[in-house]
Amino acid sequence: MQFRKCVKADEVAYLAVIIEETDKNKGAQGILVVENFSEIFTDNLLGLPHNREVEFHRSFTLSIVFLHRHSFQSFHRLQAQSPPPSSETPLSSIPDLDHEWSFDSDENVNIEDGVCVDDGVNVEDGDDGVNVEDGVNVEDEVNVDDGVNLRPCSSSGPNEPFIGMVFDDVEDAQAFYKVYARKKGFAIRTNHTRLSKEEKKLIAVDYVCSREGFRRERSKQKERIISEPAETKIGCKALMGIKKVGEKWIVCKFVLEHNHLLLTPRSTSLLRGHRIVTRVQKNLIMTLNESGVPTRKIMSVLSKDAGGDFNVGCIGKDVENYLGNKRRKLFEEGDAQRLYAYFFDRQCKEPGFVYSMQVDENGCMGSCFWADARSRASYQYFGDVVTFDATYLTNIYKMPFVPFSGVNHHHQTIMFGCALLVNETAESYVWLLRTWQEAMLGRAPSTIITDDDKAMAKAIGEVLPNTTHRLCLWHILQKFPEHLAYVYNRFPDFQKDFHHCIHNTITIDEFEHEWSVILVKYELGDNTWLQNLYNRREKWVPAYLRSTFCAGMSTTQRSESMNKFFKDYVRSSTMVSDFVHQYEKALDARYFKEKEKDVRTKSTCAILKTCYKIEEEASIVYTRKSFTIFQDELFNSQRYNSTKFSNEGESKTYRVVPHGKETPLYHVTLESGGDKVTCTCHMFEFMGILCRHILCVLGKKSKLDCLSQHHILERWTINAKSRPIIDIPILEGHVTPQDDLAMRKNSLMMQFYVIAELGTKSRKKLNHLSLALDKVHNELLLMEDDDNIEESVGPVGRESTYESISQRSQVVSNFSQTIQDPPRVPTKGRPKSLRAKNPKEMQPTKKRRCSVCKNEGHARNNCPLVRDIGHTVQVDSTNLDS
């Protein structure tokens, strides 16, 4: 064994120990890797071993690199390098060595005390450490006479590969070259592989620079010119080739030079070959994606979590590709088939879940309806008023999303089931309403609010003949500017008068009078559209519907608000099976908000504004939102004055007006006993809460000491859902295996977060934590699962609910019928130009004009002149070459 000078820079000393055994018959057959530093060095930090024997079982050349004098303790692995294929000059012939170590006859190496290395490098035993004198050239290296250069490791850059370098397996070689490439400023890819002839096993691999080779010429489309992306391959020759020799992999080819500029290590992370979406990132991406977070915001979260954009390891395009690949893999078996499998499996696990799906003669999915147990039970409590809207598209097939919604005791929007329709015909609506009513135990709502659609109105009249059908007032009013645009432009006061006629008339007589005045004043008596709308006034004019209970709703705003709510969870490109899953998540969020309101109502006390006993009683009976409405009416009742107007038998009528005013005028009729009371505003009949006018009269009669049970509507009370629904089984508080696994993960993550915060405060704590985690990780890999988590929820750490749906889809094989995906169908919509436009809208829009030929109707990429010029240039260049 011989020592020879390597590198010295300031206080950093490098020393190479080169050991060679020559066997002319066997040659170099193997390598030695020293895993434990303590096996080579004694407890003396800087001293060399004393009379230690190291046994070598193969011919080898071992290069041991000593780093900084204070880094010996952390140096735990020694690099082993194989010798050149042949070595005729033994190391003993190298001059200027003060000591030479020879091999024993039994192939053992005896390491003597003390070694002096030439050129001023003196290594001695003792506690003073290694003394490195000046005069050592930093560029020196260990030279072997056969031409192989052994370069020591440097903290300033990666080790360069060299011919003869040995790896345990092909993965180690690829990882080494990839790390080297990243630090040097380029990316790599696998170029050539070779298999053995007999066993067809991998025996050789070439890793090349990502800019190796040249781009293949693409076939050009005649009708459309596609701009070529930037060139990436420019014929770079840099590579590292490895081949398998025995059980090891040896570098057989290595080209260092590149024909292009190299990037900085920081910028190299953006190259395609160095970008990767890790497993942890995949889990986070799927969680954010399922929560409706767009890709740009997902990247923002990843950047924040990694400490900067360059530390993420991927870009937004990688996230999009990952999500796209997951979706394509998920829907290979068919979107509709997976939806059917999900419904089937859900019903098996949740008896209260119901669904129905239509299939046409071609086996394609048609309309489908579903409702869970919570929605069905909520309908039994709050199903007196239902809104029904079919104007929202949420899926890739453009199937209208039709939610059945209502309002709960907290005045929140709730769901009573929903459907996806293949079309908007009367037949589809009839099927849907019958299916929905059957799921709701045959109970029909007292009022249903929809938009103005003839097919929908026909279906409601057929299936729900005893239900009051009310049209959405907002949709009706939106049509007036379209059909009466010339009136709006000609008469500035029309909008004000029309608004007063619709919204401020209390009685039917008042509305009829003002409507007649408007027809005469604005010359609308012959307007056919307005006359048809007037003939259906009982369905949309508030004066006709004030006495009908609508839970305070006059429009389909509840349904539309749910549509807006679902927009955060789904997009127009959402598959139907994915949409159902997102719908369930949105539904969970709505019911969670309801639970929040329940807790707030039961755990807090309302602030009272008056001294009336009725207010205190109402604060105990009503939910917090309902009490707030009642409290406002009670407080404002003090602004009104009531006088007796008539007395007929057992009923008395009072005239109620604001203090000091004559209008608006309301009449309150009070029956004997005071249990039955009505007002011309009909707020109690319309909403179920006493109005300020009735409270004004009751206050004058000194009847505000208690709230009569006749005036309390159960649906607005705290105990509105106390009545059990026997026919609908609800798994309240049931924890599914998937939820149980998620809770376990969350508990561990919270604990790990605290540990990570402590472990990153110092390097000593960080090293201790890393070793502890490695130990625990290895122990967990050896442990067996003592419960059936794997069998119930699938693999631990699965990336998304896509896999859970995939697990459920195994029941598809039990179905005798295969359901095909539905076709995309056109939907209804407003014609493009039926209303008069304002002068700004009347201006002609600027047509698309080509930037090359200046003609209209096409763009530059489709310009015929560009295609002609392209062919001409190609011919001319050919002639010039010839």
UniProtKB/TrEMBL annotation:
<feature type="compositionally biased region" description="Basic residues">
    <location>
        <begin position="827"/>
        <end position="837"/>
    </location>
</feature>
<keyword id="KW-0539">Nucleus</keyword>
<dbReference type="InterPro" id="IPR031052">
    <property type="entry name" value="FHY3/FAR1"/>
</dbReference>
<dbReference type="InterPro" id="IPR006564">
    <property type="entry name" value="Znf_PMZ"/>
</dbReference>
<comment type="function">
    <text>Putative transcription activator involved in regulating light control of development.</text>
</comment>
<dbReference type="InterPro" id="IPR018289">
    <property type="entry name" value="MULE_transposase_dom"/>
</dbReference>
<keyword id="KW-0479">Metal-binding</keyword>
<protein>
    <recommendedName>
        <fullName>Protein FAR1-RELATED SEQUENCE</fullName>
    </recommendedName>
</protein>
<dbReference type="GO" id="GO:0005634">
    <property type="term" value="C:nucleus"/>
</dbReference>
<dbReference type="Pfam" id="PF04434">
    <property type="entry name" value="SWIM"/>
</dbReference>
<dbReference type="InterPro" id="IPR004330">
    <property type="entry name" value="FAR1_DNA_bnd_dom"/>
</dbReference>
<dbReference type="Pfam" id="PF03101">
    <property type="entry name" value="FAR1"/>
</dbReference>
<dbReference type="GO" id="GO:0008270">
    <property type="term" value="F:zinc ion binding"/>
</dbReference>
<dbReference type="InterPro" id="IPR007527">
    <property type="entry name" value="Znf_SWIM"/>
</dbReference>
<keyword id="KW-0863">Zinc-finger</keyword>
<feature type="domain" description="SWIM-type">
    <location>
        <begin position="666"/>
        <end position="702"/>
    </location>
</feature>
<feature type="region of interest" description="Disordered">
    <location>
        <begin position="813"/>
        <end position="849"/>
    </location>
</feature>
<dbReference type="Pfam" id="PF10551">
    <property type="entry name" value="MULE"/>
</dbReference>
<comment type="similarity">
    <text>Belongs to the FHY3/FAR1 family.</text>
</comment>
<dbReference type="GO" id="GO:0006355">
    <property type="term" value="P:regulation of DNA-templated transcription"/>
</dbReference>
<keyword id="KW-0862">Zinc</keyword>
